[in-house]
Amino acid sequence: MSFTIAVSGKGGTGKTTLAGMILRYLLETGKKPVLAVDADSNSNLNEVLGVDVRTTIGEAREMMKQDVPAGMTKDIWFEYKVQEALIENRGFDLIAMGRPEGPGCYCAANTLARKCLDLLTGNYRYIVIDNEAGMEHFSRLTTRDVDLLFVVSDPSRRSILTAGRIRDLIRELDLRIVREVLIVNRTQGELTAEALEEIKRQRLEFGGTVPVDETIYQYDLDGKPTFQLPEESKAVQAARRIFEKYIQ
Description:
The protein is α/β, with parallel strands linked by helices and 248 residues long. It has helices at residues 15-28, 45-49, 57-63, 74-85, 107-121, 136-141, 157-172, 193-201, 214-222, 234-246, and strands at residues 3-9, 34-39, 87-88, 92-96, 126-131, 145-146, 148-153, 176-177, 180-187, 206-211. Helix 1 crosses helix 10, helix 4 (74-85) packs across helix 5 and helix 7 (157-172) runs parallel beside helix 8. The protein is globular.
């Protein structure tokens, strides 16, 4: 059975960078093979990991509105397109879901996409999914079972409140979440009493904090994948301590 780790949070909290750190932790501790799934319509997990995306599941769904090649069923053709979208790398593979569906009904295409991905994920020990806020895209297209969900927030009370709302929305979807953990990212020193009180009020399990790290900003400016941050990075070290507690 695969162990699925999902990352969610409102935009701008650094969730994609943390998803990359999760993948790095898994590889460094021998927990592989890993499938990374970029379920954010604004796909940029590949940039964090330093790999190029050739095609996405979204593009394959769009093509299903056109004619399937002669002599192929839709199931066989779509499975071929899923394999084509799979990017192989050392120790991990990456697949990008792409943009949300456009005009028209995609129910059949979404069902087929979920079926293909469910079959695909069975080949991996760990699955890491970077979601857009609310996880609606994730619930439509990928496996519905999540063993560990990291909800990412910044240190502000309002952002922590948003994390609680995201958690509530997730529970309204047809998803099985075994454990939900809050990570407060980009902190400067200790959390305020107000932030700690909001975490308690939202009944969020508090996993820990990851500090502001200027190295991350510099890597972004230089176009370097943050997946390759130096081991002495404050953010890398803090994230690793959190992952050690929750990822077995």
